[in-house]
Specification:
six-stranded mixed beta sheet, alpha/beta, disordered N terminus, disordered C terminus
Length: 226
């Protein structure tokens, strides 16, 4: 019998065993026991959260970021977010290739910045998919003396050959940091902008690749909120 057919059954068995160990550890509260459970879950992949969308796998992808300003001119926030998302996806999404960002820039220079049709962009630069990131109401300050970023985000994936949207997700408000801020006397706006957009890029990229459950707790609990 092919051993692959036993994998779902094995994973369920390990899950049951892991649950039993968690209960036991809760009763005896031993750190070493928790380490055993963590290692067991990692070994069977039970600690991995699957991607919400796998439409970028094995595809030629263009990442296009639009902000409130980029519809009129080249915008630094759009460029920074695009580059960071591209960096993460290139490492995490299997079989994906990326259209160079200069190709998107040249297309917009030729066809104008005041209106954007993602399907037309995808066709023009010969992409299989377009990941459109629409960033709205981005703010970096919370009052006059505190940096605390927030923005609304919409993610849209277009299948260029099929000429349709295959995935859509809204993040009503992404905030960093959640519980505090950074005083303007401690950093500069360009540095904080880069930090904020880097955290946002992690949140966006997680939609398209699997990730460790522990990373979810660290990012959502300490750094960002949806």
């Amino acid at each position: 019998m092919d051993s692959r057919s036993d994998r779902p059954r094995s994973r369920r068995w390990f899950g049951i065993v892991g649950l039993g160990l968690v209960v036991a550890c809760g009763m005896v509260t031993q750190t070493g026991c928790l380490g055993v459970v963590s290692n067991l879950m990692h070994a069977v992949g039970a600690d991995q959260i699957p991607a919400e969308c796998d439409a970028l796998k094995n595809a030629k992808v263009a990442v296009v970021t639009m902000t409130d300003q980029s519809q009129y001119t080249d915008d630094i926030a759009a460029r920074l977010l695009t580059r960071r998302v591209r960096d993460i996806l290139s490492m995490e999404v299997k079989g994906m290739t990326l259209v160079h960002e200069d190709a998107v820039q040249q297309w917009r220079d030729t066809h104008g910045w005041d209106s954007v049709d993602y399907l037309d962009i995808g066709k023009g630069i010969k992409a299989d998919r377009v990941l459109a990131i629409e960033l709205t109401d981005m703010r970096l300050r919370d009052g006059a003396t505190l940096y605390r970023g927030r923005a609304g985000v919409q993610l849209i994936v277009y299948d260029i050959e099929e000429e349709k949207v295959v995935f859509r997700k809204e993040i009503d408000e992404f905030m960093y940091p959640v519980n505090a801020g950074q005083y303007t006397s401690e950093t500069t706006e360009p540095k904080f902008r880069k930090l904020f957009l880097g955290m946002l890029a992690q949140r966006i990229s997680r939609v398209f690749h699997s990730y460790d459950f522990a990373d979810t707790i660290a990012l959502d609990g300490a750094l960002a909120s949806e």
